[in-house]
Write a structure and sequence with these properties.
alpha/beta; OB fold (Dihydrolipoamide Acetyltransferase, E2P); Rossmann fold; 21 strands; globular; binds adenosine-5'-diphosphate; binds magnesium ion
């Protein structure tokens, strides 16, 4: 096989027709290399030939039998049947929808065949229906052994998939390894070709610390880090430095009703340094919910506007944008700035006017949703893009965004999702990072309580009191609707229960609703139409609900720590004491108790994210599952921590060599090549 061949679509392989390739595509096996990277997760033991008097019903077993009789009923819908025997008994092999000619070839009368499949018992005799394998005695070794079971192939004939995968792996092109032999030896890895074979034909794929598994993890990490490094190199290009003094920002800061925290001042220094420098800023500002990121961005914005540029502030929802818009208008009241608000709903006339004024430089600051970045929108001289709550942005989108801004545009992303240290490089390795570690001093710590579900009745008086005092309550359930399989509370059911207790005070929101509908409900809740909002986890992170001071979270052990922390961050933002009540089923595991303790003890999103990672592992971290950021296929930041560090070091040394053919191959293998091949920014 030629090297480049593996980047073809799977339908280039013999035996894969349009239907099968469509099927595989649905399971993300699109190119031949995806077959290489689709590892077996288990094996089926077909390694023993079992006598017919020792069969076990329900098990997959292999038998060696003599074909006695083929039976093709002439009545429609009756199956074809082949009667076979060995010295110890009889068995029927049953086929639905199989052609006579085909079966006659497969089962020559009076000859021995090997059959493997699931044993049934029907009408007082053993049966195998549509066996997985039927083969002559000469080909016994192909069937009678442990056979790998592949992930993602459910519903595809196992034998078929195996034959395809085998053909690919056996014909694997010999590639010139991107790792030097000495490096491989020193770090206890293994060559690429050897690694792939072992992952498919030994137990290595099931042992995430085996040499071969570690090799594929290392490759995956390198591909990822190389992409990020390259992205960074392309974005952080020379620009015209912004020119400003702190005169205007200082006036603004003095007018604020509070003093900036030390952390806020520090990150502002970092941002200003970038703005004034001759390299484009590409920075992410991380800080817990409520740590005061917005004001930091507005201060940066006034500096950029005063140096003669336009700015754009973008957030994921209309409500959030609206809140930012109101805040900006208020804060910049005396600055004589032209600020506008643009979303998908802005009417045609207004929209046209805004687009015009962006193009001719009338507008200083535009605030809005993603609709700010449509093709049609042109700025006269955009100097800074700020994006709030951006954790749904992957590398590709980030680079697109930087492109959109043009050569003199700085980029600031803001995120309330604290990322554990190990993950930082692999998610944001292309960006500089600023962190707000400190909360505003006046912020009251949210009281976190836990309660068994069966004591829920003790809560009602407390809730009643809150409603009376005009406070608002979030009530979070893991499910939208009751499920026959999961014992979790559902929002719809809970809504009915609570509405019965407190008529006309409850509203309901969940992920099945249209975006517009959700926004409408949240908007109404924001102005206080109802006291209780029953929801799934859809409530937006960034919105300020100043009247909400109680959040009740059902089946709290279902959620990750970081997620619980974010949820509770939605209350107590208006200066009132916030309370978070975690409801649990009885019989908590040790792990669950540990998790509650961490939440009660700590108010620090970064600490909680680290603990969450330790306790639950990577896949469960908040933001990853819901976000567009793809999980690693192989790497795990806890178990492969050393490889994360090793890959980071390795990439630093080879990044200048990234265009070398061997690295291109690596990048293509992990679908990174397209991200890197964007036109120069
Ligand atoms: P974030 O976006 O980081 O979640 P916000 O910027 O929405 O946080 O800030 C939350 C609230 O805290 C806002 O009402 C804001 O005015 C206020 N705030 C910001 N910085 C401070 C500070 N240093 N001291 C007191 N309050 C602050
Ligand atoms: Mg915010």
């Amino acid at each position: 096989m030629k090297k480049e061949f593996i980047f073809n679509e799977v339908n280039k392989l013999d035996g894969i027709g349009p239907q099968l390739s469509k099927y595989l595509k649905k399971r993300k096996i699109e190119k031949i290399k995806d077959i290489i990277l689709n590892l077996p997760y288990s094996e089926t033991d077909r390694s023993k030939i079992v006598n017919l008097n020792s069969l076990e019903v329900g098990k997959i077993q292999s038998i060696k039998v003599k074909v006695k009789k083929l039976n093709f009923p002439r009545i429609r819908n009756l199956p074809n049947k082949i009667i076979c025997e060995d010295e110890t008994g009889k068995i029927d092999i049953v086929y639905f929808n199989s052609r006579e000619g085909y079966l006659r070839k497969l089962y020559p009368i009076n000859e021995y065949v090997i059959i493997s499949g699931k044993i049934n018992y029907f009408n007082k005799s053993y049966q195998i229906t549509n066996p997985d394998y039927v083969t002559s005695i000469e080909n016994k070794d192909y069937v009678v052994k442990n056979i790998p079971k592949y992930a993602l192939t459910k519903g595809i004939n196992e034998k078929k998939y195996r034959s395809i995968s085998e053909k690919v792996i056996n014909d694997l092109p010999v590639i010139s390894d991107w790792l030097e032999d000495t490096f491989i030896k020193e770090n206890n890895l293994i060559s690429w070709n050897e690694c792939i074979k072992k992952l498919h034909y030994s137990n290595d794929s099931k042992n995430i610390q085996s040499k071969s598994y570690r090799r594929i993890v290392f490759d995956e990490l390198c591909a990822n880090f190389l992409t990020l490094s390259e992205n960074r190199k392309r974005i952080k290009k020379i620009k015209i430095p912004k020119k400003f003094t702190n005169k205007y920002s200082e006036i603004l800061i003095k007018k604020l009703p509070f003093e900036l925290t030390l952390s806020q001042k520090e990150v502002l220094d970092e941002i200003n340094y970038d703005l004034l420098s001759n390299r484009r800023m590409f920075r992410i500002l991380q800080g817990d919910v409520g740590s005061g990121k917005t004001i930091v961005s507005l201060i940066a914005i006034i500096n950029v506007i005063k140096s003669g540029y336009q700015c754009a502030l973008m957030s994921p929802t209309e409500i959030l944008s609206k809140q930012h818009f109101e805040l900006a208008k208020n804060i910049f009241k005396k600055d004589n700035l032209k600020i506008e608000y643009l979303t998908g709903k802005t009417d045609y006339k207004k929209r046209k006017e805004i687009l015009n004024n962006l193009k001719n430089g009338e507008i200083d600051l535009i605030i809005g949703t993603h609709s700010l970045f449509q093709k049609k929108i042109n700025f006269q001289n955009l100097g800074l893009i700020v994006i709030d709550e951006q954790h749904k942005f992957g590398v590709k989108q980030r680079s697109d965004l930087a492109k959109k801004g043009g050569n003199n545009c700085d980029v600031l992303l803001m995120s309330a999702t604290p990322i554990p240290r190990t993950m930082m490089m692999s998610l944001y390795g292309d960006m500089d990072v600023s962190k707000i570690l400190e909360k505003p001093k006046n912020r009251k710590k949210i009281i976190t309580l836990s309660k068994p579900e069966k004591k829920i009745n003790e809560l009602w008086p407390f809730i009643k009191k809150q409603i009376k005092e005009g406070n608002q309550i979030f009530w979070v359930c893991p499910l939208i609707e009751d499920s026959a399989f999961l014992e979790y509370s559902s929002a719809k059911k809970k809504y009915q229960i609570i509405e019965k207790k407190f008529p006309n005070t409850v509203s309901l929101i969940h992920g099945d609703l249209e975006k517009d509908e959700k926004e409408k409900i949240l908007k109404k809740f924001l102005i206080g139409d109802k006291s209780i909002l029953v929801s799934t986890t859809v409530i937006e992170v960034g919105i300020d609900f100043p009247n909400a001071n109680l959040i009740i979270i059902e089946n709290a052990n279902k959620f990750g720590l970081a997620q619980l922390h974010q949820l509770r961050g939605r209350v107590g933002r208006g200066g009132k004491q916030g309370t978070c009540i975690l409801l649990f089923k009885d019989g908590l595991s040790k792990n669950a108790i540990k998790r509650i303790k961490i939440l009660k003890k700590s108010d620090d999103g970064f600490f909680i994210a680290e603990e969450d990672l330790k306790l639950r592992g990577f896949g469960d971290l908040v933001g990853f599952q819901q976000s567009g950021i793809k999980n690693f296929k192989f790497a795990d930041p806890i178990n492969h921590n050393d490889l994360f560090k090793l890959a980071e070091k390795f990439v630093k040394n080879v990044i200048s060599d990234i265009n070398h053919e061997k690295f291109t191959f690596l990048l293509k293998l992990f679908d990174k090549a397209e991200i890197i091949n964007f036109d120069n920014v």
